[in-house]
Structures are given as structure tokens and as C-alpha cells.
Amino acid sequence: MKLPDKILKATRIRDGKGFSLAKHKPDEGFGLKLKKADAKELLAQGKEQLSAMQERLYADDRWSLLLVFQAMDAAGKDSTIEHVMSGVNPQGCEVHSFKAPSAEELDHDFLWRTTCRLPQRGRIGIFNRSYYEEVLVVRVHPAFLEGQRLPPSPHDGSLWEQRFDSIRDFERHMARNGTRILKFFLHVSKDEQKRRQLERIDNPDKNWKFNARDVEERAHWDRYMAAYEDAIRETARPHAPWYVVPADDKWLMRVIVLKAIVAELQELGLTFPQVDDEAKARIAAARAALEAS
Ligand code: ATP
Ligand code: MG
User: Fold this and answer.
1) Environment of ion ligand 2 (residues, CB < 5 A)
2) Which tens digit of pLDDT belongs to each residue from 130-155?
3) Candidate from 82, 115, 129 with most ligand 1 atoms within 8 A of CB, to mutate
4) pTM: predicted TM-score of the whole model, two decimal places
5) How many angstroms separate the alpha carbon of residue 72 from the centre of ligand 1?
6) C-alpha radius of gyration, the chain, whole number
7) Residues whose CB is less than 8 angstroms from the CB of residue 95 and which lie 6 or more positions away in sequence, other chains included
8) Which secondary-structure segment (H or E) carries 95?
9) What is the C-alpha to C-alpha distance for residues 141 and 144, in angstroms, rounded to an integer?
10) Domains present along the chain, CATH in parentheses
11) Looking at the DSSP assignment, which residues form a beta bridge with residue 278?
């Protein structure tokens, strides 16, 4: 079984101009009617491909891959990251989660804490939430800005326009210097979120995942969606695309994310370094020395 290319195309936003979230349904199935067994087969296949690509990424040592995950609560960020991670060599991959900023982080500009954690060449970095929170949760709750102690800006435009400018500049800079940035919005519906939150309450094994604040955040749903739409519109670019992944079906979501990562890595044209004649001669000499020892 193969995931049709049209699905990756439908979820990938390379140019945010005119982007409308209303056109992306959280329960979109693309007519696929994916069974759990099919999804598991596709995931196993995707993990194998990812593992092979990661080895090339490491050997090639020119690119790094940054995967940014953003979503409303209970959309399945953690389990998706778990699935992606299970397909890679932990030595070549790091996951960082970003929560409300610490006092030290608030003493720096808003890109500082994530910049410190960018992946090295040859590595994969995963951000569970990211600098995008600065135009999402902070936009929905502008009171967070007070803690940031920003001076009056000498520049034109709203604070949010300036932040989008900073993010676009930052991502362009990273792309020029060998970081492939993929941003995933796991798009869950308000109803499905409610169902999952109720399950967290009703199922004692899932109680630990329940957070009463998440229920409060639901009241701001429409403002969050407007903020996501704006962020995607303003920052989706060919060198830093967004993937808007339907998240009501967890299995389909995981398959799309994994396959998107594999497809993007395949486009990088990663190669194993070639061994030249001089190096071959050195290897032969070493072999002879080893045998004689
Ligand atoms: P999970 O609920 O699956 O454990 P999570 O990512 O939701 O994962 P939480 O500890 O529940 O983790 O929440 C982190 C919170 O921190 C989120 O509500 C997020 O919006 C908030 N946050 C992240 N970055 C910022 C920021 N720059 N300013 C303010 N709040 C932020
Ligand atoms: Mg949470």
C-alpha cells in the first residue's frame, strides 16, 4: 500500500498567500478509508524509510532537519512525535518541548530559547511547540507580553506583523544555511478535542494527562484558529512549508506526518560521501598494516 501523493500535496502549504483554514477539515479522510492495519503497515514502511534517510542525512553532513509541531491540546502531538522518534536513531535526534517561558528566557528576545536548541548539521531536531507560541498563545492572551518587558518599538506595524517579519527572516536565514524546516499543524476539531478530554477524565489511566486549564482554553477556540490561520498565511514558504494535517483520525495523521518527512528528506538529494583514490589507498595500507600486526 502507498499513501497517494495527492494527500501530501493537499496538506502542504508552501505559499501562505490566501490560505484559508476553513478549506482544511480536521476530519478529512481524502476518500482513503484507512483501516488501522493499513495505517500500521504504512507507518512501519515510513519508519524504515526514515531510518535509511536519517543515515544519509548524518553521512551527508550538510543539512539538518527541524520539525516543528504545533497544535491545540489533545491533538496528538506527543504520540505523533513518539511515532516519528521510534523510526530514528536516538543519537541523531533531539526533542525539545517549550512551555511558558522561564525568567531567564524572558530576559532574552523571543527567538533565543529555540535558537539555542536548533539541530546540528546531520541531525534531526523536533520542537514540541516552538517560537510560534509567540504569535499563538501570546496573541490570544496578550497579558503574557507584560512579562516580556518590551521597549516601545521604533518600527512601523503591529507587534504581530513585526514578529512574523522576525520569524520569516529567521527561517530564511536557517534555510540558506542548511536547515530544512517543516512545520506541522495537527488540526483537531473542537468536538474531537472534547471527546479526548472527556476520555482523559473518565479513564483513570489517562487522568494524569488531564489539565483543567486546557478546558478553559477551549473558550478561546475561535481566536486560536484565527491566530493559526494568520501564522500559516504569513510564514508558509517553499523553504519552510506548513503541513496542515487532519488530526481527528490519529492513525491517518501519524502516517501523513511520517510520509511528509520522508518525502522532504528525499528531495534534499542526500548522498553518502564518496571515497577518493587517495583515501582508498590509505584504507588499503591500513588493512595491510592490520593484517601484519
Ligand atoms: P501536554 O499537554 O501534551 O503535556 P503541552 O505542550 O500542552 O503538552 P503543557 O505543559 O500542558 O504542555 O502546556 C504548555 C503551555 O505552555 C501551553 O499552554 C503553551 O501554550 C504554553 N506556552 C508555550 N510557549 C509559551 C510562550 N512563549 N508564552 C506563553 N505560554 C507559552
Ligand atoms: Mg497541555
Assistant:
1) 73
2) 999 999 999 999 999 999 999 887 77
3) 129
4) 0.95
5) 10
6) 21
7) 81, 85, 126, 128
8) strand 93-97
9) 6
10) 5-292 (3.40.50.300)
11) none
